[in-house]
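Exercise 3.2. Students should predict the tertiary structure of the chain below and write it as structure tokens, then compare their answer with the key that follows.

Predict this chain's 3D structure.
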Amino acid sequence: MEKSVYTFKHGVKDGLPIGLGYLSVSFAFGVTASMLGIPYFISVLISMTNLTSAGQLAGLTVIATLGTVAEIVLTQLVINARYFLMSLTLTQKLDSSFNTPTRLFCAFGVTDEIFAVASSKKGSIGRKYFSGLMLLPYIGWATGTLLGALSGNILTPELTTCLGIALYAMFIAIIVPPAIKSKGVLLAVALSAGISCAFYFIPFLSGVSQGLSYVISALISACVTALIFPVKEKEDNV
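Answer key:
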């Protein structure tokens, strides 16, 4: 594919609003980590080696409940499986400047927002543009986590608890709009919530660790929804 016309500067410019958004969201993640007793430097290390709010929150829960490494791996695999598809889709837009090492490097920075911006560009994209696009979101995510984690150790417990709710509020804001528009999404959300409640309230299921319950809830809800509301062939080609 021919060389991209987009430069590193273009990427930084496009990544600025994403970075600002990540700064606020990761602040809530840092506060939540602090509430769970995670040291601030561990919280920052997690954000510097991951770029996934849902995955990181789920991972924190597994860590806080003394879950196993296998549970963390399975949880992350299920929650972040969508990034496989996003990365495969982006390969169709990469120009000749990409080789295997740069593909692996840029795959680390694929998030919902970065994917949306990169895939919306006309023509091909190069490694310089994609590196610029990743830069500010990465800095914003790590910096916000640091500020949130440090604030969690300084602020009063009442205020820390309020800020910790912000991350969960973000997930609700993400889920509600598509659930209103799509019966399939609504069913998946309702099923996963119901199964999670069952693991919490039913005595013989409450012994299952939270990490494993996340995996089971996600898999069952996804399979049932796929059977009831299969994607039509016409929609696949859109």
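Discussion points: The two ends are 23 Å apart (CA to CA). The CA atoms of residues 158 and 164 lie 10 Å apart.
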